[in-house]
């Protein structure tokens, strides 16, 4: 006699894990998300509005909240006032170089901290955390003296080499690798004859791609927006980075805020493109890792 399946109808609409009924989120659940999104996007929208209007519109009451028709005029003013594209190329070289070096050195050091035992490991990691908590401004004077002694003042090397590794990146990747990389995989790689660098290249890197994507976005944005250290060390007008060049749009007596906003908007566009690309990769790798797990 065929037995009647009594369990299947009872489980309809229930989650397999805890047996709780799944309910769709109502419209009120999305209200906080919508308000937060508006608050976060409004500064960017305001930049677009001001970049398409004139400086006189900046002082109007009530303020204009719709884009204008002066964007091309403001762009032309930016391009004639500063070496925009030359500064963007310099910034792109610095940001890409710093990002690549940080991803390599920080992940390599984090791999050693996360999965290997060596003398003074705890002491070195504690020292790393101490450097992580120190403000970056404390190192400006010693770094500048070092750049003078080696003759790098006014060159892009002075921006790239000191930023080639940082405490945050090592700490972040170490924490990520501790949970993401099973010891059994590394043990199997050792049995297959893999040394440290072969384990890093062929076993570790494919697993930590989501962590590297986040660190890459964070590092690129920080290098692109860096202002204080380039302002200190770059003395050649042809080697200025974009943020330092944009600061020249602020005149001594009067500032055309529409032009300033236009320069800021043009500087943001590469960051938005980079974020959209790498964020997509980050989400894809995270989902793929969850499915494999």
Please write out the topology.
Blueprint: H1 7-10, H2 27-51, H3 71-81, H4 84-115, H5 121-133, H6 140-150, H7 157-160, H8 167-180, H9 183-191, H10 196-207, H11 209-225, H12 228-233, H13 242-247, H14 257-292
Helix pairs in contact: 2-14, 3-14, 4-8, 4-11, 5-8, 11-14
Description:
The structure is a single chain. This protein has 293 residues and is an all-alpha fold. The protein has a domain at 94-237 and 270-292: MetI-like (MetI-like fold). Helix content is 68%, strand content 0%. It is built from 14 helices and no strands. It has helices at 7-10, 27-51, 71-81, 84-115, 121-133, 140-150, 157-160, 167-180, 183-191, 196-207, 209-225, 228-233, 242-247, 257-292. α2 runs antiparallel to α14 (257-292) and α4 crosses α8 (167-180). The longest helix has 36 residues, at 257-292. The radius of gyration is 26 Å and the shape is globular. It starts with 6 loop residues before the first helix and ends with a helix. Residues 1-17 and 289-293 have low confidence and may be disordered.
């Amino acid at each position: 006699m065929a037995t009647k399946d009594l369990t299947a109808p009872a489980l309809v609409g229930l989650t397999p894990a805890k047996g709780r009924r799944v309910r769709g989120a109502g419209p009120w659940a999305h209200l906080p998300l919508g308000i937060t999104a508006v608050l976060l996007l409004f500064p960017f929208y305001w930049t677009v509005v001001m970049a398409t209007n004139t400086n006189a519109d900046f002082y109007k009451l009530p303020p204009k909240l719709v884009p204008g028709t002066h964007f091309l005029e403001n762009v032309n003013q930016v391009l004639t006032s500063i070496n925009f594209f030359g500064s963007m190329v310099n910034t792109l070289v610095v940001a890409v170089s710093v990002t690549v070096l940080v991803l390599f050195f920080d992940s390599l050091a984090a791999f050693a901290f996360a999965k290997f035992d060596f003398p003074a490991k705890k002491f070195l990691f504690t020292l790393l955390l101490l450097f992580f908590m120190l403000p970056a401004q404390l190192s400006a004077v010693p770094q500048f003296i070092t750049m003078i002694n080696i003759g790098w003042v006014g060159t892009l090397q002075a921006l790239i080499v000191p930023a080639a590794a940082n405490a945050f990146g090592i700490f972040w990747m170490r924490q990520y690798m501790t949970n993401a990389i099973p010891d059994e995989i590394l043990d199997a790689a050792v049995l297959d004859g893999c040394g440290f660098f072969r384990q890093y290249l062929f076993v570790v890197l494919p697993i930590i791609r989501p962590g590297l994507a986040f660190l890459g976005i964070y590092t690129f944005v920080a290098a692109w927006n860096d202002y204080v250290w380039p302002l200190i060390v770059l003395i050649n007008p042809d080697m200025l980075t974009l943020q330092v060049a944009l600061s020249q749009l602020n005149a001594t007596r009067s500032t055309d805020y529409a032009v300033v906003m236009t320069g800021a908007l043009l500087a943001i566009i590469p960051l938005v493109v980079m974020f959209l690309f790498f964020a997509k990769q980050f989400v894809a790798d995270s989902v793929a890792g969850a499915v494999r797990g």
